[in-house]
Write a structure and sequence with these properties.
The structure is a homodimer.
Chain A (H helix, E strand, L loop, with lengths): L1 E4 L7 E2 L1 E6 L5 E6 L2 E5 L2 E4 L6 H9 L1 E6 L5 H6 L19 E3 L6 E3 L4 E13 L2 E13 L12 H4 L2 E4 L4 E11 L11
Antiparallel strand pairs in A: 2-12, 3-4, 3-7, 5-6, 6-11, 7-10, 8-9, 10-11, 12-13
Chain lengths: ~190, ~190
């Protein structure tokens, strides 16, 4: 094996979009790969304090977190390039549509396939930097990503995967196994 | 859009293996999907306090975190089924090979393609449950997953993706885009 030094090389990483309202009701969306589920009803966002998003979170105590899909990869990527601190029309440039969540004081971007609507539980500096913990109040899915059981079929999400090593985006391929299934061959039962 | 209620539905999630030594030098490995990078040199593990892994972490203050690949999917899945609290041979049943890390007091499972070697920085109860923060001291990669630039080629990892909705494992498909690239069309520059 080769030693590569210190790098944040976990794979896969998600491509997540954090959407918030500013003090003027303005929609801001930023792109984040370092974060996700931290409890059965909670998510963790590892974002710097100087983001527009953080300013908005302090004000509204709410956000939505959406999964980026292949069809909106350029828009999702832009949300990681432009800064809401510098641009007044960062969101509007994409032509995407935001509507107010019925569950929290934050916008839902309708084009993304899967969105968690969250309230801020805690935010502040930690040993690993600025962190926001949100409680999931509802999950919203586009009708076309639902399977026959009425629940999300992840194959239909067309979710993209972030490659931290070379900044690539990958698609998700075929289903190859079943959790709490493939490993049973090592069990006594 | 359809409202689905409260669920931890972020996608993709990684399939990560946490490897530790017990007080007798015994290797334990557990499977985790809720966690990952939380800073450029840190990872967060969201695991319960009653795991064998947590007991070991309190003792050794070190762990390794590996990416599960398709070739070792059954082994990785087993590490999420069996408990080191109940089984004395949980790791040995898989036939995998553990060697001591040169960087931290924890085992490296040689068969996994990519491993982060970490020291515990902080562990304890938080607003979102028990959490462990680790500092990355080194990243190790199998030689066969390196690209021509000597760095990790994520396509060669054959990493698997966890589907929280239906407990499926998926493979990663083709590269479809470039971060800080595809979104530039919305920039002024």
């Amino acid at each position: 094996m080769k030693n590569l030094g210190v790098h944040p090389y976990v794979f896969p990483m998600p491509v997540l979009l954090i959407a918030t309202y500013g003090k003027d009701g303005k929609v801001d969306v930023m792109n984040m790969a370092w974060g996700g589920v931290c409890a059965s009803d909670m998510v963790a966002l590892n974002i710097d304090e100087d983001h527009k998003t953080t300013e908005n979170l302090k004000l509204t105590k709410a956000f939505t977190l959406s999964v980026a899909d292949r069809e909106h990869m350029a828009e999702a990527d832009w949300f990681g390039i432009g800064s809401g601190n510098d641009l007044d029309d960062k969101f509007e440039r994409t032509g995407l549509t935001a509507v107010r969540s019925e569950f929290v004081n934050a916008p839902v971007v309708e084009e993304f396939p899967l969105t968690l609507e969250c309230e801020v539980v805690e935010m502040g500096e930690t040993v690993s930097g600025y962190k926001v913990i949100g409680r999931i109040k509802n999950v919203k899915a586009r009708e076309d990503v639902l399977g026959e059981d009425g629940n999300v079929d992840v194959a239909k999400l067309h979710a993209i995967v972030f490659d931290q090593v070379h900044n690539g985006y990958y698609e998700v391929g075929a289903k190859v196994g079943q959790a709490w299934g493939d490993g049973l061959k090592y069990s006594d039962k």
